[in-house]
Amino acid sequence: MQTRTLGRTGPTVSRLGLGAMAMSGAYGEADRTESIATVHAALDAGVTLIDTADFYAMGHNELLLAEALRGRNRDDYKLSVKFGMLRGPGPEFGGHDGRPEAVKNFLAYSLTRLGTDYIDTYRPARLDPAVPIEETVGAIKDMIDAGHVRHLGLSEVDAETIRRAHAVHPVADLQIEYSVISRAVEADVLPTLRELGIGLTAYGVLGRGLISGHWSAGRTAGPGDSRAFGPRFSGGNVEHNLALVDALRRVAEAKGCTVAQLVIAWVAAQGDDIVPLVGARTRERLTEALPAADLALTADDLTDIEKAVPPGAARGDRYPSAFMRDLGVGN
Question: By the 8 A CB rule, do 26 and 35 touch?
Fold first, then answer.
């Protein structure tokens, strides 16, 4: 597995990272044994970056990873953890908390659940509009100085917020949705990251499965699957979006790869400062995704992908409207 360094000050990690959210029921029921086996398979394949959040199933994901990582050399993997999104006992979300005292509280719980002495990259999941980003970042800086955190990260914020945060402490990377159907980051955010020497970890590279080549027209999301509320999966939109996938499939077949491998490789090809996060929850999906790390796309390949899915071609927002207002960039 090749490696990439996230920004000027960030960690060196594998060219592909593993996103663990789906292992805790975000897309319907997940098998615990298979999830742990998938983490093990990823580590054995050379994946060193694992991304989670303290609010994924209210701590379930961190506890799951602690079990999966038990006995592994702590130097062999990097943990990226998001915090600050407030949850209730049901499916509701209750906003964001970026207060300094909350930052340290969230971190203490994550360290305990994960069974580790430090988090490699710690980041607010979203901007708390009631708290200046300088205060939130200042609290993370305190935790870096104390040795509980190694690097500062951000998630889903705009260019101005990145600059303000970076002025307090160097930002290693921004985590944000980036895929062939979600390219808003390219306008202002990506140039800002490159100006400041900040890396990008891209989630949603498969469009939550929509552009993986495995979603089909007429398929409905099962119980507990958040895609049931996704605008791009809704009637009218999904048919249009799957037509884009059909166009991508023709490019993939000519390249001798799967659609999933093609779109992951497309993200990786956008720059050596970008690391795609693959949200595999089974070894089967992980096995399909891993070859994308070595899939070299030519200029002609990139042109063909652009023709198949021009910027802005997808229909529907990437999140329901209630969540779109929390994002620093759009679709």
Answer: no
* Short-list 259, 251, 266, 260, CA closest to 297: 266
Token digits of residue 307 = 């023709």
Distance CA 306, CA 266 (A): 10
Mean pLDDT by 10 residues, the chain (331 residues): 94 97 86 96 98 94 97 97 90 88 98 98 97 98 98 98 98 97 96 98 94 84 81 90 95 96 98 96 96 96 96 90 86 86
Element (H, E) at 276: strand 274-278
**Considering the entire predicted model, what is its pTM?**
0.94
In terms of C-beta density within 10 A (0-12 exposed, 13-18 middle, 19 or more buried), how is residue 279 classed? Answer: buried
Is 56 marked active-site?
yes
- Give the long-range contacts of residues 107-113, CB within 8 A, separation 24 or more: 107/83, 107/143, 107/148, 107/149, 109/54, 109/59, 110/54, 110/62, 110/81, 110/83, 111/148, 113/54, 113/59, 113/62, 113/63, 113/66
- Residue in 56, 122, 203, 319 annotated catalytic: 56
